[in-house]
Design brief:
There is one protein chain. With 244 residues, the chain is mainly alpha-helical. The chain has one domain. Helices cover 75% and strands 0% of the residues. It contains twelve helices and no strands. The longest helix has 24 residues. The N and C termini lie far apart (36 Å).
């Protein structure tokens, strides 16, 4: 339970109180609980959509997107912006890319990328709300955060003191597999036939982006992990909006 609270505290802005000192084992084990946190975010989005049932779909989509960003504290959007700036400004050079990624300032590439991602998310949310398939709101947050244990379990972390160094040091692969399978089964039982296709989208995008990461950086960073979450969410939403 402590590892879950660590994951909840890191990935959301929900008030979480923990007593005692945080141990490295708690941090590494928290990685396995990321899909559960994503599922919780999806539940909150779905319940909010039900509460907004009588509101105009455009307004509901805007409010849900706002809630989504607030719940995550824009953590992954920040990583997406930094990664976009670094990939464009790095000009194919590894060291230059890593240096730009550490710069707290946001450049044009980062701003444009974040705006486009939010625009696509808004459009997909509007489509899902119009069709009434609010249960599908569970999938994107859950699968987006399911990609993180997959990333840190299979990909070297290139910064010694980076935000994700503790996660990548000793990922609990057995627990990751167990909890990931449990979340997938829950999604399958609740959301039905769209889940396998959404999972294929997530895994395919992960494999593609991992190739890009390895070619440019030789591994991953915390910012790239955040970008992976956002891009996975967008890809899953596009798929769901296309098939619903």
């Amino acid at each position: 339970m402590r590892a879950f609270l660590v994951a909840l505290q890191f990935l959301t802005c929900l008030p979480v109180r923990m007593d005692g000192e945080l141990h490295p084992q708690d941090t590494s084990r928290s990685l396995a609980w990321y899909p559960v946190v994503g599922l919780l975010i999806g539940v909150l989005l779905m319940l909010s959509a039900l509460l907004l049932h009588d509101s105009p779909p455009l307004l509901s989509a805007a409010l849900l997107l706002t809630l989504w960003v607030v719940l995550s504290g824009a953590l992954h959007l920040d990583g997406l912006a930094d990664s976009a700036d670094a990939w464009v400004g790095g000009l194919g050079d590894r060291d230059r890319t890593l240096t730009i990624m550490k710069d707290p300032r946001c450049g044009p590439a980062g701003v444009v990328t974040v705006v486009l991602v939010l625009l696509v998310k808004f459009s997909a949310l509007f489509t899902l709300l119009e069709t009434g398939n609010v249960v599908l709101l569970l999938l994107a947050p859950a699968l987006g955060r399911m990609a993180l244990p997959l990333l840190f379990s299979t990909t070297p972390y290139v910064r010694e003191q980076g935000l994700g160094s503790a996660l990548a040091a000793r990922p609990p692969r057995g627990l990751i597999l167990l909890i990931g399978a449990a979340v997938f089964i829950v999604l399958l039982l609740v959301a039905g036939g769209s889940v396998p296709g959404a999972l294929v989208v997530m895994v395919s995008l992960f494999l593609l982006l991992r190739i890009v990461m390895m070619r440019r950086l030789g591994g991953t960073t915390g910012d790239v992990a955040g970008a992976l979450v956002e891009m996975t969410e967008v890809a899953v939403l596009i798929f769901l909006a296309s098939v619903c």
